[in-house]
Amino acid sequence: MSESKPIYKRVLLKLSGEALMGSQDSGIDPDIKQIIELGIEVGVVIGAGNIFRGKGLADAGMDRITGDHMGMLATVMNCLALQDAIERVGPSCRVMSALSIHQVCEDYVRRRAVRHLEKGRVVIFGAGTGNPFFTTDSAGSLRAIEIEADVLIKATKVDGVYDSDPMKNPDAKRYDSLTYDEVLHKELQVMDATAIVLCKEQNMPLRIFNLNKAGDLLRTVTDKSIGTSVVPASN
Fold this sequence. Notes:
The protein is α/β, with parallel strands linked by helices. It has eight helices and eleven strands. Strand 1, helix 1 (29-37) and strand 2 form a beta-alpha-beta unit.
């Protein structure tokens, strides 16, 4: 384990459903174990893009609200899979759902979630916000604010935020730091606009890092130079 000291006490990690599809050689669960061992409290919000998205179902003709509810349930499936993977490598873990599914997980209650975190348990937040039309990005912002995380860390397929798609443009410029307003005005694909505005209003810092590079999650919580930071505008 790294000898570096953590720069955060509590973090909210936002993962896409694709994070469970094995693109990272070692998986995300050992990385989460490592940052828990540093004494960092970890909350997680995970999407369901590996299964389906409510908007995609709506675009195919399904009622949007029905599709979004199906998407929320799909995130709970991913939460249970991630819980199993994390507990197989060590840390105790709890899944808390914005929809009541008592047989498989706890209801989301903010004070109870904070208590789990304080006891060193990983808390995985499922079912988004519990409301249709809101993405899991928005759920990540909301839960980070509610649990008073020090930072919201967004996992992506690249090592930060670029001015264009680095997969298509080899000359794309990576930003070390951005303000919320710059993300919105430049329409950078960091998170959806609702999530960014929520972070801006509540001064929740963001960090964007590369999920597919082994060890980068650990480096992100010990080294501020990793990835791209999104912060309030300086006065």
